[in-house]
Amino acid sequence: MLRYLTAGESHGPSLTAILEGIPARMPLSTKDIDTELSRRQMGYGRGGRMKIEQDRVVITAGVRHGLTMGGPIALAITNRDFANWQDTMAPEAEARARDTRPPVTRPRPGHADLPGAIKYGHRDARNVLERASARETTARVAVGAVCKRLLREFGISVLSHVVEIGGVRARIGDLSPGQIGALAEASPVRCADREASETMVARIDEARKRKTTLGGIFEVIVEGVPVGLGSYIQWDLKLDGRLARALMSIQAIKGVEVGLGFEVARRLGLEAHDEIFYDAERQAPHGLRFFRKTNYAGGLEGGTSNGEAIVLRAAMKPLSTQYAPLQSVDLETKEPFEATVERSDVCAVPAAGVIGEAVVAFEITATLREKFGGDSLEEMKRNFDAYLNAVRDF
What is the pTM of this model? Predict the structure, then answer.
């Protein structure tokens, strides 16, 4: 079973992740992870903290001489900004007397501040916002990077691109996933449509001047997934449900679509489903001779991968912290006040796409491990190849 936990606060000493279930003898380096951490920090509209943090991973367990050992992999990312928050975030009780920052008693609308404070009995909402912060996703991107490294061994790739920011929609036409990925990585907002990209940048500048924020939509595409990952047998084994949960777990995500998504509800059945064809001579990456000419289902049918590319989209709300703060109520006095302002981004949709890749990569890897097992990478590949031979003969 593949599983992970993250720990750490936004302004604490570091973020930590422990990933268990990666097979032994898989090549892994810090560069594999640092590349993804760097991508998460990019994107037009990010705030000042990205100028402080230069996220780099330290692998403290589970890897030796460039190969995984089969045990839990421990990943740590230092928060450089902790140097400015040592008394505020210190674990020792005596540090409270040295802390010059006042408690956060004016919860921000749209954040976990108020419900979290009530749930856990905190009178200082900093105890909530530090852990609820999207800074936590740094650890998840590190986990996703390890999973991406394993997926590459099986010819599976995960990419993302921005399709909408602030109401500006991209048009990508018939571009291949590879073309989309290359164009997105060259764009300041990770959008494959150059004209839309320029308009998105202008829209972000306008929002910054108005001291507000912008949301949008990103798309994740997974290529090379073999038929049969996930299952229709039980609700919690359905791959589409697992992927939707993973994307919805990202901070500020409010909606998820698979394939056509909500558009499918507006179509006739004749226009909503992918017809099935067969070609005995077809040279597919994973040997499947059945294929579709369309991909309305987004690569998932009955909770199971069907051999086509998996296509997912997630909608991100405008970030909750406003530099022109919204109205709130003080937790102590119950008097109306403007909400507390914490340092934030104007737009983080480009970064959210990278986080989306990470959580999707984890779920795809989890189902791959469940189906093919193996204590070592070599054993897992033998199981995988045996399955593909059966698929080719089906």
Answer: 0.96
